[in-house]
Design a protein that fits this description.
The structure holds 2 protein chains of 2 kinds. Chain A is mainly α. Chain A has a single domain, classed as de novo design (two linked rop proteins), CATH 1.20.1440.20. Chain A is about 80% helix and about 0% strand. Chain A is built from 7 helices and no strands. Chain A is rod-shaped, with a radius of gyration of 23 Å. Chain A starts with a helix and ends in a 7-residue tail after the last helix. The relative contact order of chain A is 0.14. By secondary structure, chain B is an alpha+beta fold. In chain B, helix 1 packs parallel to helix 6 (about 155-190).
Chain lengths: ~180, ~400
């Protein structure tokens, strides 16, 4: 009888540990998948930028500084091969230069009537949106797994199976918080 | 998000089992009352009808629905802005695949989502919606629809809807059988005595009540799911004012959706059949009153999380229990609202032009861009080899199309 009770308790504990462990694995996979989504969108942005620079060069030749800043920021963002925090920094810098490029473009009515430019602008601003929504999803996933790793009782399972805290994709405070000031 | 989906699935399973019990009880008692001893047969017939309808709606439900709404599939080149918004929102919702995009050539602004699971999801919008809403508002509406997809509402409402349909159908068949064959049975089954009489009474009561109960359950779930999709929309976009202002514009529109029927109405963002009485809603509505939905979204203030929506819901409606399932709420932190970053994609005139161009293209019109800035469009039936621009008079040669 006592043996039976013992057995039931052992099975229940095993099931509980299994559930907790699977929950942690699911959360970790969610973090990885959502990082993949950010990665896809960042690459897409890198691919779009040369087209944009090409399209605007003819119109804004004497804005050379702005164009070079964009090209340089893109180059740096491609080359960075660090962890999440380093990539976030490089990509945020790129967002910043793109924003100033579009702000400058407002002063060129010919450019704003160019269908090719408008299509590229839509693509790029949508890619910006996709990056920020992917980041939003990623950060939510990171928060979920970090909570599980730190909170009782899942922290016991997390530490015994060596689950690591994940890093947030941070937004640089002054760079991202200002909504782009587009004047018409 | 995961917690919300799972809490929804648990709830769904419970209600489906409850309704199934109601359905089988009805099938059993009806058959038993009509012919003593035939209860098992009745059960079997009820089961067959239900399985048949469920299979059809599971595999063919979305295509039937899209055909009924006269929706047509579009590609990215037909309307890049709409496509981008759908892609953005499916990333925010964490869907495994970007849903197919369909448009309906209708002036009434509305939208719906269908498809049995996120892998087969479809989102459809009317041309009126594309013309009326700016980008942030469109984003709110698409996020609401993808909220239905992510929360598995489409499958759930389909299952419950089929169950309700079967119950109504069985009650109807039973009623007819009683009317035509009841008299004969009553005289021949005297031997059953009191037990038979009880079965008869239960059958009649069930026949009258079951369809009503089933419909009330269905409608209550449907309304609740609308609130939840609004909550999801606010969470995905982090901007509840977008959906609120979209709902305001939609509620001011007087155009009526001609392709909506009673069967398809619950699937839309706002109830397409209640154009004249959108302030009202009672137990017979598939959707909550639109003014209430707007008030809840507007009173979320600076928050955009599920928790913020739940608080706003309780504040506005005065109800003690919110709409977000408890287990999902426990893990749903408050989220700050973030104003949208993307510039608005053009004014109303540009949106109308973009939408009509998309519809022309769907009807296989050919487009020629003239150097003077005019866009020429002509129908597939046009047989001429060249066309003159009505503005500048330049004559364009038409490339014979490969098709």
């Amino acid at each position: 009888m006592i043996f039976l009770v013992f057995l039931v308790v052992v099975v229940l504990v095993a099931l509980w540990v299994m559930g907790m462990y699977n929950g942690l694995v699911r959360s970790r996979n969610e973090v990885r998948n959502s990082w993949g989504q950010i990665d896809v969108q960042l690459k897409r942005r890198h691919d779009l930028i040369p087209n944009l620079v090409e399209a605007v060069r003819g119109y804004m030749g004497h804005e050379r500084g702005t164009l070079e800043a964009v090209t340089k920021a893109r180059q740096q963002a491609i080359q960075v091969t660090g962890d999440v925090a380093e990539r976030a920094k490089a990509e945020n810098a790129l967002s910043q230069t793109l924003r100033s490029l579009f702000a400058v473009a407002e002063a060129y009515p010919d450019l704003k009537a160019n269908q090719n430019f408008l299509a590229l602008q839509e693509e790029l601003s949508s890619t910006e949106n996709k990056i920020s929504f992917a980041r939003q999803y990623y950060n939510d996933a990171v928060m979920r797994i970090n909570n599980k790793i730190q909170m009782f009782p899942s922290n016991i399972i997390a530490s015994s199976f060596n689950f690591q805290m994940e890093k947030f994709f941070e937004v640089e405070a002054d760079a991202e918080r200002q909504a782009p000031q587009v004047k018409f | 998000m995961w917690e919300l989906v799972r809490a929804n699935q648990r709830r769904a399973a419970t209600l489906v089992v409850l309704m199934a019990a109601l359905l089988f009880l009805l099938g059993y008692t009806l058959a038993e009352a009509l012919a003593p001893g035939a209860g098992a047969g009745g059960l079997f017939i009820a089961f067959l009808v239900w399985i048949g309808l469920t299979l059809v709606s599971y595999f063919k439900g979305d295509s039937i629905f899209l055909a009924l709404a006269r929706a047509r599939r579009i590609e990215k080149r037909d309307n890049p802005v709409l496509f981008n918004v759908v892609e953005e929102m499916s990333i925010a919702a964490g869907l495994p695949k970007v849903p197919d995009v369909y448009v309906i050539d209708e002036a009434a602004p509305n939208a719906f989502a269908t498809g049995r699971d996120p892998q087969h999801a479809v989102v459809a919008v009317t041309a009126g919606l594309l013309e009326t809403l700016n980008r942030d508002e469109l984003q709110g509406v698409i996020a609401h629809e993808l909220g239905h997809v992510a929360n598995r509402d489409v499958l759930y409402m389909m299952m419950v809807g089929v169950m309700m349909g079967t119950i109504v159908l069985l009650a109807d068949i039973g009623g007819r059988a009683f009317f035509w064959g009841g008299g004969r049975r009553r005289t021949s089954s005297r031997s059953g005595g009191q037990a038979q009489l009880i079965i008869l009474v239960v059958a009649v009561v069930l026949m009258i009540l079951a369809p009503v109960i089933a419909q009330l359950i269905y409608l209550a779930i449907s309304r609740r799911r609308e609130y939840l999709a609004d909550a999801s929309s606010a969470m995905y976009t982090r901007y509840p004012d977008g959906l609120a202002s979209a709902l305001e514009k939609i509620s001011h529109s007087t155009a009526k959706l001609t392709v909506a029927t009673r069967a398809t109405a619950p699937m839309y963002t706002v109830n397409p059949l209640e154009v004249s009485q959108r302030g009202l809603a009672d137990l017979s509505s598939t959707h909550p009153p639109i003014s209430e939905r707007i008030r809840i979204l507007r009173s979320m203030g600076a928050g955009a999380g599920l928790k913020n929506y739940d608080e706003a819901f309780r504040r506005v409606t005065g109800r003690p229990v919110g709409v977000v399932p408890f287990r999902a709420l426990a893990s749903a932190e408050q989220r700050p609202a973030v104003p949208p970053g993307a510039p608005d994609a053009g004014n109303r005139l540009e949106r109308v032009r973009r939408t009509t161009d998309m519809l022309w293209r769907l009807n296989e019109y050919t487009f020629v861009a003239c150097a003077c800035g005019t866009g020429l469009k002509f129908p597939p039936a046009y047989v001429g080899r060249e066309i003159a621009c009505p503005h500048c008079g330049t004559v364009h040669r038409i490339q014979p199309t490969a098709a």
